[in-house]
Amino acid sequence: MLKKLILFILVLFFSVTGYFYLRAMNDSRTADVIWEILYSSPDYRERAGESLNLSHPLIIKYYNASVSKDAGYAHAAEITMTGGFKLGDNWLDLKAEQVLFPKKGFVWKASIGSGLSSIKGFDFYYNKMGVVNFKVWGLIPVVKLEGEDIARASIGRLLAESILVPSAFFSEYGSLMTAIDKDTIKVAVELDGEKTEMMIKISSEGLPSEVVIQRWGDVNPEHKFMYTPFGMKFTRFEKIDGYTIPVEMSGGWNYGTERYMETVKLEFEKVKFF
């Protein structure tokens, strides 16, 4: 009887484990397929500054500081990063890789924490669909979010992160930029029906020191979806393939308000433009 019970428990354990494993593999394949679509999507132009119509000295200063005169046109980037993610009162180590294609989508695959607290998964936006999917040890579901509100929140992230690919960002939104004071640029951004505004602070060197976007989300006491300021502060830059971009940053929701709490820190280890 005891042997049968042990055998039953083992069969049940491996069946459940196999079920979660197969689901995890299926979810991972979805993210991998979208990654490959974004990575292989063409958008060819000869020069980064082709057909630009920049209207203000501050905007021109930002462009010239970000894009070298001899830079070719890059429409997307593949990024490897490390950092930290704040969960409750604790900071957890973070490792991630991302493909970022302004105006089309992104896939962010991450591992957060370690040991018993290890969470692995992905966050993506593509073709009007946004998904957040993370699992304990990469197997047991802990967060799976999708639907219209999540898609709109994901669009906000994509729009804010588009500044990391300067040639594509200026090509898409350069004509929509407005200098509202001596060091702030407002950008009216839109993607797949989602319209919002970004504010970009420009340093004396002409580089962005912070970006704040009105992003759709429910990070408030009522957990009600509404436009909420989401911001990132940039602290270190590198010149890569003719582009000078932020490679160290921190930020979170409710940026610039009394509710703001820093929840993410990132440091880029490798950036490949394509």
- Number of discrete domains: 1
User: What Rg is obtained from the alpha carbons, in whole angstroms?
Assistant: 21 Å
Label the structural class: alpha+beta
CATH class: Mainly Beta
Count of DSSP strands: 13
Spatially, the strands of the biggest sheet line up as: 6-5-4-3-2-1-13-12-11-10-9-8-7
Please name the CATH topology: outer membrane lipoprotein receptor (LolB), chain A
- The portion of residues forming beta strands comes to 35-45%
Distance between the termini: 63 Å
Percent range of helical residues: 25-40%
Sheet with most strands: 13 strands, antiparallel
Please provide the ordered H/E string of secondary-structure elements: HHEEEEEEHHEEEEEEE
Molecular shape = globular
Helix segment tally: 4
Oligomer: single chain
| Unreliable residue runs | 7-25
Which whole number gives the mean pLDDT? 89
- What CATH architecture would you give? Clam
Characterization of this structure:
The structure is a single chain. This protein is an alpha+beta fold. It has a single domain, classed as outer membrane lipoprotein receptor (LolB), chain A (Clam). The chain contains 4 helices and 13 strands. It has a 13-stranded antiparallel sheet with strand order 6-5-4-3-2-1-13-12-11-10-9-8-7, sandwiched between helices. A hairpin with an 8-residue loop joins β10 and β11. The protein is globular, with a radius of gyration of 21 Å. About 7% of the residues have low confidence.
List the helices and strands and how they pair.
Layout: H1 2-40, H2 57-66, E1 77-87, E2 90-101, E3 105-112, E4 119-126, E5 129-136, E6 140-146, H3 148-161, H4 166-173, E7 177-181, E8 184-191, E9 194-202, E10 208-217, E11 226-240, E12 243-253, E13 264-273
Antiparallel strand pairs: 1-2, 1-13, 2-3, 3-4, 4-5, 5-6, 7-8, 8-9, 9-10, 10-11, 11-12, 12-13
